[in-house]
Records
---
Amino acid sequence: MDFVPDNTVNKLILLYVLDKMEIPLTENSILEICSSQNDWVHWMDCKELLEQLIQSKFIYKPSTDNDENRYNITVAGRECLSQFYTRIPASRRDEIATFASENKLKFKRNQEYVAKSYKNADGSYMVDLKILEPLTTDSIFSISVKTDTRHSATIACKRWRELAPTVYEYIYSKIIEN
C-alpha cells in the first residue's frame, strides 16, 4: 500500500525539503525536487501549498526585481517542523535527506550561476553570464560574451555552471586585490 499524504503532511514535506537543502530555492527548483524528480508532492498541490506556507509565515519569499524569487524556511517554519516532522514517514524523511545531500550543490549552482544566450541581428550570439547573490538574487558578477555560433553559445552556457567560481575568483584577484 502506497503512502498517500494529506495537505498537512505535504506542507511538512515542503518545509523539510527547504530545511534539508539549506539554501533558498526558486519555485521551479522546489517543483523539480518535489514533483518532477521525486513524487513527494503533486505539482498543482505544491504551488498551492507554497502560497499557504507563505501566508502562515512558515516560509519567506522576498520581493525582488526579477522573476527568480527564492523561498526559504522561517524560524516559525523550523519550529513547526521540529514539532511535527514525525508525521512525515521515516522512509520519506530519509529519501529527502539523501536527495538533499546528493543534489544541494547542483541546485545551488543552477540558481546562482545563471547563463542565457540570445541571437543578435547580425547572426552572432550574445551570452550573458551571471553570479547571483544567494539570498537577494542581486547580480554580484556579470559578463557578456559574443560568440559566432549557437553551438559555442550553448557550450559557454553549459560550462558556466562549473567554471563560474574559478572565473570570478581569477578576475576578482586580478582587478580588485592587486
Note: The chain has two domains: 7-104, 112-175.
---
Amino acid sequence: MKIILIGLGSIGQTILKSFAGEGHEITLIDENKELVEQLIERYDVSGVVGNGACMDIQQEAGIREADLVIALTRNDELNIFACLVAKRMGVNHTVARVRNPDYRKQIEQMKDDLGIAMIVNPERETANEIFNLINLPSVSGIERFAKGKVLLVEVIAKEGCALIGESLISLGKKLKSKVLICAVQRGDEVAIPSGRFVIQSGDRIHFTADAKNLDAFLEEARLVKSPLKNVMIVGGGKIGYYLADALSRKKYAVKLIEKNAAKADELAEILPKVTVSCGNGTQHELLVEEGIGAMDAFVALTDVDEENIIVSMFANKMHVKKAITQIENDDLLGMMDELGVDNTVSPKQVVADRIISYARALSNSIGSNVQTLYQLVNQRVEALEFSVKKAAPIYGIPLKELHIKKNCLIACIIRNNEVLIPNGNSEIRVGDNVIVVTTQKNLDDLAEVFE
C-alpha cells in the first residue's frame, strides 16, 4: 500500500516503526525538517516538509496514488482538515487523531459526515484499556480477534496459581477448560513454548481462548480475583477524566487526585459521582490521608513516567489489589517486572495498535491475508489473524504432519463462527480464520508460517 503519514510525534513514530519493513510505500509529512530527514534516513521512506493539511504539500507527497492517509498532528482541527483535503484529492481511507473531549458526543457524527474512516482519541482509547483491566481484575492484558469471539489474554502466574510447576502437556490433560498458551515472558526472555515447557512463578503467560470459556479457565487455574470496587486515580488529565467518568457510571467508587486547583474544581463539577481532591498525588502523606490503603485499584496517570512508577510501587506496598501505571518511555518497560509493576499502559501504543490493525485490514482487502495484528511483550511478539481465502497444499492436512517454522504457533482456528483450540490432529481449511503467534516479523501470508 501507499501510506501518507502526517505528524511525526510519538504515535506517528510508533506506527512508522511498525510499518517499516512491511513492504509499504510510506511518505512522511511534518513541519520539522530535521525530524523528517532523520526518519527518512532511518527507515528508508520518503518525506515532505510542510503543513500536512495544505493541498500543495499533499500533492508533493503523491496524494493521488495514496491508499491510506493517517493524520496524527497535535492539532485536532488540522488532522480533520488534512483528511478532508485527502478525501477531496481522491483518497478513500483516512484516519484522524482527535483528542478534544468537547468533540466526544459528536465524534461519530463527525466521522460519518466528514467521510473519515477512523477517528482515534488516544486518551479515550487508553481509558477504555484501563477500564477493561479494572473490570477484569485477573488479567494484565486482553486483545480481541474474530469480532470478539477469540481472546488473547495475558496473566501473571503468582503464588497459588494452578499452572505453576506444570508442563503444557500436563495442563492439557489436567484442565477441562481448553486454552492454548502461546507465549511466555520470563524475565527478559520470551518463549513460544513447546509441550514440555514448565510454567514458573512470575511468568507472564499469553493464551488464546474462546471468549465464552475465559471465566471458567481463570477459575480452574485459580487466577480469579475478587471484583474491584474502590479506585484511586492520580492525575486529572484527559485519560483521568475519561476513566473516572466511565468507572463512576458503572457504580465504582472513584477518588481522583489532581494537583491543579482550577482543573480539580472543573473535574468536580463535571464528574458529580466522583470524589475529586486537589493535591500532589505523588506525596506519601496525601496518598495515606486520601485512603490508599483501602483502595482495590490504583491508577497512576501523571505526566512523568518515573512518578507513576514510584507511586504504583507504593500502592503495591499498601496491598492495593491492582495498580495500573501509564508509561510513555519504551526504555522503561523492560524494568517493570523487576520493580513489581505488573500492569502498564502506553497511550501511543494503544492507538498505534488500533491504527495498525485497521491498516492491516485495509491491506487485506488489497492483497494481504492479515486481518488483525497485535504486538505483545514490548513489540517482541506478534499475534496475527489470517484469512484463508484459497486452497494450498498445506491445507486439509493434520498440523502434526506439517513443518511449522521455529517460534511460530497456530494459536486458534475459527471455522463457521466456531472457535477451535488446535491440537496435532487439527487441520486448516479454506474459509477459516487462523490466529498465529510468532516472534518473526512482517509475515504477510499464512503459508509463510510453514517450511
Note: The longest strand covers residues 179-186.
